[in-house]
Amino acid sequence: MKYLFLFFLLPQIILFGQQQPDLQYILDQHAIVMGGKEKWQNFNSHITTYEVESKWQKFGSTLTMKMPNKVRIDMVKKDTLTVESHDGKEGWITIMGRLIPASDREDILMTGEPEFHGALVLAQERSDLLVLEGKDKINGKSVFKIKMKKAGTNEKFYYINTETYLLEMIGEYSEALGWKGTFFKTVFDDYRMVDGLLFPFELKLYSNDNLLRNYHSTEIKVNTPVHENIFNKDFNIIKRNARLFSKALMESDYDTVVDFYTDDGKIFPNGQKILSGHEALRNYWTPPPGSNNRITYHKVTAEEVEILGDTANDFGYYEGRSIGNDGQESSWKGKYIIVWKEVEPDVWKMYLDIWNSVRE
Known about the structure:
alpha+beta; 360 residues
């Protein structure tokens, strides 16, 4: 009798063994291995530092994000800082001192960045349209292929390992000018747990089958407090102006230095009276005739930049080096407070500039 029972049960065992899990089961298992839905629901922010390598160059990159749709990417390439940022309403790119509005496509990409690693965990809660398109192979690994459709024509394909339920790859067709029709792929590896959430520490970006970049995460910080201002366009303009001010000082370009102040701008040098207006400021910053004094290094590090409508309070520390008439180089540092004014849309200049030195 027991053999007869097994005979009737066998087809069901075979059928069950061949049955493909449904979409719900796949999503549930994926959520579990990624740390669980509850953990991802409490996921508010992360700061990830990358070492990036391509066939042309190596550079550092920092991704800062705050849920649900604020993101900032800082990339330092050959001493040039490029910033891509989105404050939840609009995006822009700052490069070589120029502020460029993000395209519609770049807006979509940036707003999707904060949930990039855990996009499928809470997809159903966000009512994203998901379709299980069967199985595929990624680098010899069996994967489930899931299509996600969001706003407009934005579609992404997610490839979940059939054994581990980890995300192996994300792919999408580009609609950007010059890249239209290109299938961009991000391949994930080296998963590690960070505060109860699973993150890939190795990413590879491909255009079709051509490797563009390797991303190696050196640090991931989860739910670290992130100030709203860093995603703000005005914040980025002020930070850019501070860098360009330092650059002008090091290049002895005093006309440009003075132009960073409002027409009635005021400075408060150590041991001197308040100086006001472009003429007085130019006389202060410009070395006297015959002098060999010059600033060889200057850097400003903001502790906080608070935007208050068309004014902003900026304070922090400065440091630098200069060469005197005797040819000797000296180093110095101090603290500062700057009050900025927006004199016209997206044009911020210094109104009050106060500084004094600090000892070691």
